[in-house]
Every structure is written in C-alpha cells, then in structure tokens.
C-alpha cells in the first residue's frame, strides 16, 4: 500500500514538473510573439480580463489616433506598442479596480500591416502583410511584371525615424544571385514602385 502511494506521488510530481516546463516554454514563446508584433492604427484586438466579463472586449478597433477605448480606463494608447506592452498598461490601470488583474491581448485582425505595389506590375494595389515577405515575394503577390517594366530600377520607399528612405532594387541582379542583399524584407507601409 505504501509503495502505491509513493508511486502515485512520484507520478503526480513528475507530471507537475513536465507541466511546469511546458508552461514555461509556452510563456517564452508568447513573450517572443508579443515583442515581435507592433500594434498599429486599424488593427482589431481581443482583450480578455480573466474572471471579469465586464472588462473583456472583443473587436476593439485601434483608432486613427492610435488609441483604444477600454472600460474604466477610457482612452489607452495602443498603436506603437506591442501586445505585451498593452497588456501591462491595461493591467496597471485596472489595479485600482480589480485585485490582481490578468489581461490577455490578442490581435484578431492585423489590418495595419499592409504594403503597396505600384507601377508596371499586373495587379497594383494594397496587400496584407501577414508574414515575413521579401521584395521578390511581393512581386509574385502583385502578379509579376508587365512587359514594359524596367526591372533594374525598382524603388522601395520606407519611412524610417520620421524620414522617407529609398532603396534601389535590381530584380535582374537578385535573380542572377549577384545582389541578394537587395531582396529586402517588406515592412508595414512600404511602397514598391516598378517604373
């Protein structure tokens, strides 16, 4: 009988250790994800406050001014922060009303993550940026080039630190393996112009 109790205790402890390790890995992955995604105007968020249904909101739109409306906190700055940063801000604000608030912020629809392709491509327009995408992949999404495209004078325009920066992209060199460094990763609000 004592052997069974000891064995059962060991099994429970082992399961607890395995669960703790799995939870730690999951939290590390969640932390990495939350530091990667920067919220932008137009994004739609789901904000859940554990055990507080009145403080749980689905389909929260990040307004053009970069703020969201949240119960008890009024306007909260969301654009330019990560989901993890917004979670902490809301939890800090709710501490005056709820003891130990636990908030989850999830991006339901990342509509702020878009890029644009203009000029001599088959389908010009605005495209969603749901994953890491390179310039070459952006051309594929835009349906490829028209017969009049100048493939060695492509421009990628990007706003960095408040200033417009222009990168020159030579499609021919990239595809020949000469200048693979020109195959840049697309960022939100990039504009690619194919003359």
Would you report the number of β strands? 10
Which descriptor suits the 3D outline?
elongated
Rounded Rg: 24 Å
CATH structural fold name of the largest domain: Outer membrane lipoprotein wza fold like
Low-confidence segments, given as residue ranges, are 15-35
* Rounded average pLDDT: 84
| CATH classification, class level of the largest domain | Alpha Beta
Structural class: alpha+beta
How many alpha or pi helices? Answer: 4
What would you say the CATH architecture of the largest domain is? Roll
Give the biggest beta sheet. 5 strands, mixed
* Physical arrangement of strands within the biggest beta sheet: 7-6-10-8-9
> What is the total domain count?
2
Estimate the strand proportion: 25-35%
Q: Considering DSSP H and I runs of 4 or more, what fraction of the residues is helical?
A: 25-40%
Can you say what the CATH homologous superfamily of the largest domain is?
Answer: Outer membrane lipoprotein wza domain like
Quote the distance from N terminus to C terminus. 82 Å
Summarize the structure.
Helices cover 30% and strands 28% of the residues. With 195 residues, the chain is an alpha+beta fold.
Describe this structure in words.
It is built from four helices and ten strands. The chain is an alpha+beta fold and 195 residues long. It has two domains: 37-109, 2-Layer Sandwich (wza like fold), CATH 3.30.1950.10; 114-194, Roll (Outer membrane lipoprotein wza fold like), CATH 3.10.560.10. It has a five-stranded mixed beta sheet with strand order 7-6-10-8-9, covered by helices on one side. Strand 8 and strand 9 form a beta hairpin. The N and C termini lie far apart (82 Å). The model is unreliable at 15-35 (pLDDT under 50).
